[in-house]
Task: structure prediction
Amino acid sequence: MVATAHMLGPGSLKLGETASQREIAAQLTKFSLEPKSDFEDDVPVLSGETVPGDASTDWSIKGTANQDFDKESIEMYCYQHRLQDVPFLFTPSNDHDVSWSGVCTVVPLTVGGDVKKKNTSDFEFRVIGEPTPVDSTGTPLELS
Result:
């Protein structure tokens, strides 16, 4: 297998239920699906052996969005759905056949900033459980 590197985009980020998904990719200047793993210390036991510490991975989706003050903006969507768990579908590149689906907790975004400047809002939404790699139809990929 030959290693390759791909550019992020053009792609897609959709938030919400399938029937009412909101596409927000046009406002995003940066986006990532990020794991954070935590490893507890190993525990020595009387026999001289060691019990491995627990390990876990938490996920989040993070990004930077150009601010938009319209009713249909990502800021308004996040305000309207604040602290709600909503489905997401992230497609890093329309030229490839892997997307990521999951559920995230939406939080409100910053509105405003420097006067007479185009402001952005950084955000981080926690992912509930594990994200799932899916194909273009939303079917989970079988990983070998």
In short: Residues 12-37+55-134 form one domain.
